[in-house]
Every structure is written in C-alpha cells, then in structure tokens.
Amino acid sequence: MPATPAWPPKSAPRLFVPGPLHAGQEMALDGPQAHYLARVMRVAPGDAVILCDDLTGEWAAGVTDAGKRDVGLRVEERLREREQVPDFTLCAALLKKDRFDLVLEKAAELGVRRIQPVLTRRCVADKLNLERARAIVTEAAEQCARTALPELAAPIPLAQLLRGWPSERLLFFADEAGGTPASAAFSADPGPAALLVGPEGGFDDAERETIRAMGQARPISLGPRILRGETASIAAIALWMGMVGDWAK
Predict the structure, then answer these.
(1) What phi and psi values does residue 130 have, to the nearest 5 degrees?
(2) Taking the domain 14-80, which CATH number applies?
(3) Taking the model in full, what pTM does it have?
(4) pLDDT digit string (tens) for 119-130?
C-alpha cells in the first residue's frame, strides 16, 4: 500500500503575511503575492501554502480559491513556533545598489536579527529604497525557511550610530588596517554583538580613530586579503554564526 504523501509537501510555496495567524482563519491574498501563487506557482484549490507572520511562527494553509486577482486561503495548523534569532546586528556601509542587494539577501539567509545601513564619508551610495530593500529581505527569508524577518532600519550617518551605541553591546569592527583575528575575537566575546563593515573605499582615518576609541569596539581582521564590502559582511556573519551563533548549536 503506498505511503500517504506528507502534508504540507516540502515544495509548497512560502510567504510572509500579516498576523497574528490562527487555525481556521480564512484570508484572501492579492497583488504580487496572488500573482506569485496563481501565475507562477499555479496553485489550485486543495494545494498547500506555508505562511509565516513574524509573530506566531509557521503555519500550513490550504488554497480555497485561486482567481485571477486574488487567492483564498484557510489556515489549518501551526507547524513551527517563531524561531529564536541570534542577537547579532549587521551595520553595513551602503554600497552600489547591486552589491548592497547581495548584502541584504545573504544577511537574511545567514540569520542576522537586525540590519542597520550606515552612511560613511566614502560611501558611493547615499540613499536606500527601504520598500525595495524590505522586499529583498522578505524574499530571502521565505527562500531559506526563516520564521522571523530581520529588522531593517533606515540608513543613518556613522557618527549618529556611534553616538547612540549601547554600552552593553560589542561592536566588531572589520578594519582593513588590521586587528584581532575574527575567529579569536568572536570566541572571546560570544554575547550580543554587532558587526561594522565599511564601504568600497573603506573608512577614512578620522572614522577609524573614532571607532577604535570606543570602549565597545573590537577591531578584527578577516584574513590576509582585502575584501569587498559585501564579501566582508557575508564572510564575517558566517564565521560568527558558525562559532557562537545558531550554527554552533
């Protein structure tokens, strides 16, 4: 006798929706989400969709109606509670659009809790479309099966970031001038932390001196090669997650 297929199937599309969700709830999705389900995934009544609300966790839902403009869903059961996200913030200087898009996407996939874009003297870009950036972060979280969305803040100047820095949070500073090897620094201070990464041209001397003068700052080295801003962010996040984050559990 053939085995009963698992429900919902692992291939079911995933979406973040407003919450809180609960069993028995009925809803209709429209706009880009409806287009994705109906036109791209071609769902039909009875098909499964995975929903996350960034509040209560992950839920299985069944399609009740798949029209041209909206898709009806009925929430069936909770599959997972909202995940406990490691307390790690990425403070990344703005880069050219395509490169910063990559930072946003990979930071979400790698599991950061918060993303704080930063404006420095050598930033090539000085603006960020927050609506577009949040869409990139959300799509990345859906793709990698996160149940919690990273917080995404509006860009702020470096001076403002440093001036309001909390006394209890370490700031690992990816300094191209050198510092403690990142692996050793992360192991020595495994608590709530943040990573500060500079722009294409790096930090200027005055910025570097100001950062290093902070008691919470920990200058770190990411190896013998000069890394692009997006590479430095991705590499350092992965290393932190592997050593003291949720990859190590």
Answers:
(1) -65, -35
(2) 2.40.240.20
(3) 0.93
(4) 999 999 999 999
